[in-house]
């Protein structure tokens, strides 16, 4: 079934709004902008095997940088992002013991985390894929008790990860950070730098330690588990949350990630005019036609497009039913469905909304063109 919720309530708010529909023991939450070949069944199997309250899917950060940051630039593939997602894993890389999003690379950790875990592997090369398996009863309890939580990534998952370590910190006799509203005030001498060597004694597993009941008596029950499913480095896992990511993904599915396409996406050979060339990593949709002396490089062209002669399309995405007149030059742009480009139009780094008409001889750079709402 499909349930509509308000747009501004976030991912946690969306689940809270439909919680009465959730009845299974475990649920899988997947962001709608995730493009991946990671098997949800494999994530669910890991979640159930460890009887976890949450299992987060982690994958390698794309070469162009974390797509979670939503950068629309992305032209410099070698430029590193200024902020990172810091992931802390246990030595066996099964449990998620620390998570901090969009922080400086050299950040601070509370010492009680290290005392509770024993050893922690710090990673900044992993991206939260926004695919989570939750134990439904625990998720619903958190959503009910924490009615201000709006984001699964920013609120719910960090809360579950932090709360699994509280009993271990109490056992170790380490003072914890005091809370002042939503701001945590920490003791300077109770911090360590991530960049320092983590030279702490190893424990078999922090989930095997004793925990304390509310009356302060030690018991041998296990704390809840927050697990990590780390996708293989060969997996394709990218979030489609920016214009640049949209263009990158469209090119990827014509090359290294072509297995993501179903068999019927690419139709029969389109009609090409004389001396028209289509380079590698391109896709031409069913029923599209091109005139003479055209060039298409590293671009995707949708279905039933009509492209005139002497047209050049480079690093662009052209959707369905687009008409492109003679002599047009399109670079680094996204052209939505039913757009009409008249003769000799030049577009560079532009986005053209559905149904828009660009008049003959127009030149635009870095513009967003769309029809005005009536």
UniProtKB/TrEMBL annotation:
Signal peptide boundaries: none
One GO CC term on file: cytosol
> Is Glycosyltransferase given among the entry's keywords?
no
Q: Where is the EIF2B subunit epsilon/gamma LbH domain?
A: 271-359
Principal place where this protein is found? cytoplasm
Superkingdom of the organism of origin:
Eukaryota
Q: InterPro entries attached here?
A: eIF2B_gamma (IPR051960), LbH_EIF2B3/5 (IPR056764), Nucleotide-diphossugar_trans (IPR029044), Trimer_LpxA-like_sf (IPR011004)
The subcellular localization recorded is: Cytoplasm, Cytosol
Q: Which GO terms describe its molecular function?
A: guanyl-nucleotide exchange factor activity; translation initiation factor activity
Q: Name one Pfam family in it.
A: LbH_EIF2B
What Gene Ontology biological process does one annotation of this record name? cytoplasmic translational initiation
Keywords on record: Cytoplasm, Initiation factor, Protein biosynthesis
Q: How does it assemble?
A: Component of the translation initiation factor 2B (eIF2B) complex which is a heterodecamer of two sets of five different subunits: alpha, beta, gamma, delta and epsilon. Subunits alpha, beta and delta comprise a regulatory subcomplex and subunits epsilon and gamma comprise a catalytic subcomplex. Within the complex, the hexameric regulatory complex resides at the center, with the two heterodimeric catalytic subcomplexes bound on opposite sides.
- Family per UniProt? Belongs to the eIF-2B gamma/epsilon subunits family.
Q: By what name is this protein known?
A: Translation initiation factor eIF2B subunit gamma
According to its UniProt entry, this protein's organism is Gossypium tomentosum
């Amino acid at each position: 079934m499909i349930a509509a919720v308000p747009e501004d309530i976030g991912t946690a708010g969306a689940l809270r709004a439909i919680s009465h529909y959730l009845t299974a023991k475990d649920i899988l939450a997947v962001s709608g902008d995730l493009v991946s070949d990671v098997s949800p069944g494999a994530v669910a199997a890991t979640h159930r095997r460890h009887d976890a309250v949450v299992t987060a899917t982690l994958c390698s950060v794309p070469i162009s940088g974390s797509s979670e940051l939503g950068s629309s630039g992305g032209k410099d593939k070698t430029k590193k992002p200024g902020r990172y997602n810091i992931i802390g894993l246990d030595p066996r890389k099964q449990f998620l013991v620390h998570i901090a999003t969009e922080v400086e690379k050299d950040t601070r950790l509370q010492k009680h985390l290290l005392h509770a875990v024993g050893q922690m592997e710090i990673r900044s090369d992993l991206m939260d894929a926004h695919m989570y398996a939750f134990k439904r009863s625990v998720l619903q309890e958190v959503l009910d008790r924490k009615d201000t939580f709006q984001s699964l990534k920013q609120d719910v998952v960090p809360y579950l990860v932090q709360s699994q370590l509280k009993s271990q910190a109490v056992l170790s006799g380490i003072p914890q950070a005091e809370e002042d509203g939503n701001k945590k005030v920490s003791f300077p001498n109770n911090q360590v730098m991530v960049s320092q060597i983590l030279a702490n004694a190893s424990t078999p597993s922090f989930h095997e330690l004793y925990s304390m009941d509310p009356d302060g008596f030690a018991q041998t029950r296990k704390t809840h588990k927050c697990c990590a499913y780390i996708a293989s480095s060969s997996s394709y896992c990218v979030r489609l949350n920016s214009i640049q990511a949209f263009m990158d993904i469209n090119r990827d599915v014509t090359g290294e990630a072509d297995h993501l396409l179903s068999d019927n996406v690419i139709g029969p050979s389109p009609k090409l005019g004389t001396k028209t060339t289509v380079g590698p990593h391109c896709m031409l949709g069913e029923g599209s036609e091109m005139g003479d002396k055209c060039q298409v490089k590293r671009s995707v062209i949708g279905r039933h497009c009509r492209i005139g002669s002497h047209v050049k399309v480079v690093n662009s995405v052209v959707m369905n039913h687009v008409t492109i007149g003679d002599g047009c030059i399109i670079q680094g742009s996204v052209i939505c469905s039913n757009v009409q480009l008249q003769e000799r139009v030049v577009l560079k780094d532009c986005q053209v909304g559905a149904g828009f008409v660009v008049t003959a001889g127009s030149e635009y750079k870095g513009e967003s063109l769309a029809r005005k709402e009536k």
